[in-house]
Amino acid sequence: MSRIKVMTVFGTRPEAIKMAPVVLELAKYPEMITPVVAVTAQHREMLDQVLSLFQIEPHHDLDIMCKGQTLFDITCRSIQGLNQVMAQEKPDIVLVHGDTTTTFAGALTAFYHQIAVGHVEAGLRTHNKYSPFPEEMNRKLTGSLTDLHFAPTGTARENLLAEAVGPESIFVTGNTVIDALKATVDPAYRFADNILQQVDYATLKIILVTTHRRENLGEPMRRVYQALRDIAAEFSDKVEIVFPVHKNPLVRKVVQEELGGVSQVKLIDPLDYQPFANLMARSHLILTDSGGIQEEAPALGKPVLVLRDTTERPEAIEAGTVKLIGTDREKVYAATKLLLTNQAEYERMSNACNPYGDGLAAARIVKCVLWKYGLTRERPGQFCGGK
């Protein structure tokens, strides 16, 4: 075989951020690889922002997003659309990423066509099927359909081995989010948002907050916001809280009820990836229930307090860059106050070694694919960071 067709499938902003380095790396081998990009647009506007930033033009755009879409809608529409795309393109391998519904639908459709599946960011586990929901099962089900497992860390590899995945099919690559981050953060970056332009990054400690997880909707989020209100009142002359508020109306309603009108809290619309990455770089610490931020922020030396009871990314907890604090009001308040007042604790977290990558994950993934299809002779090296 002298040339292979490699299809990448993704549909959300987080997937696009982490798959963009892979798409760009595949394009570096035109003599050996015919790359095909298919997007479901499970997220429309947020996906387009990332495609524009990395100058990626999909060959197939299913544009499935609809108002009020459910997991059933996303799954069915993705499979139906990808069925036609794969039947037309007949790729040798389909690469999917992570744990979204698009990920599972892409892997399942490839399986039905008897096409090999490569899973980027394979092996993350909480071992709780409903936390995070539906991501934990999306990831496990995709793993059952996968031929090449691109595990970001040694811990992820161990999770796969524990599930009887053959070691010859697992490659530890590091996480592609670090590749994307290194290409995006710029000390000279200027924010277009007027509120972000006026933030005093030089003298105030900036607390960046994001919340969106389904399991935190309602009272858990309310408790978090009440803790933030307490912090804003106690440290009124020392901190500023910047909160890009998710567009989910259930999130926005509680945010406005608890934090609307608090002068130290800047409520802004969700940011594109480039300004958000640069905002992370200028923040003092981050409170989030996001999975990806647990990987990105440590690469920037920023402590992360995770507003969840479980995480599929234990490496950062073990390394000390991330602390799992849940959503209890007093616990959120105490953990945040500690990092604002205890310099030794702050430095311990901010200076801990990032276990997630070195910016070469995409190169390793593409070299693995080439090696497995006999287009290169030397087995690729693996990422040695993390556990």
UniProtKB/TrEMBL annotation:
Its EC number is 5.1.3.14. Coiled coil: none annotated. It holds the Pfam family Epimerase_2. It is an enzyme of class 5 (isomerase). SUPFAM superfamilies: UDP-Glycosyltransferase/glycogen phosphorylase. The keyword Isomerase applies. NCBIfam families: wecB (TIGR00236). PANTHER family: UDP-N-ACETYLGLUCOSAMINE 2-EPIMERASE. Belongs to the UDP-N-acetylglucosamine 2-epimerase family. This is UDP-N-acetylglucosamine 2-epimerase (non-hydrolyzing). It comes from Methylomusa anaerophila.
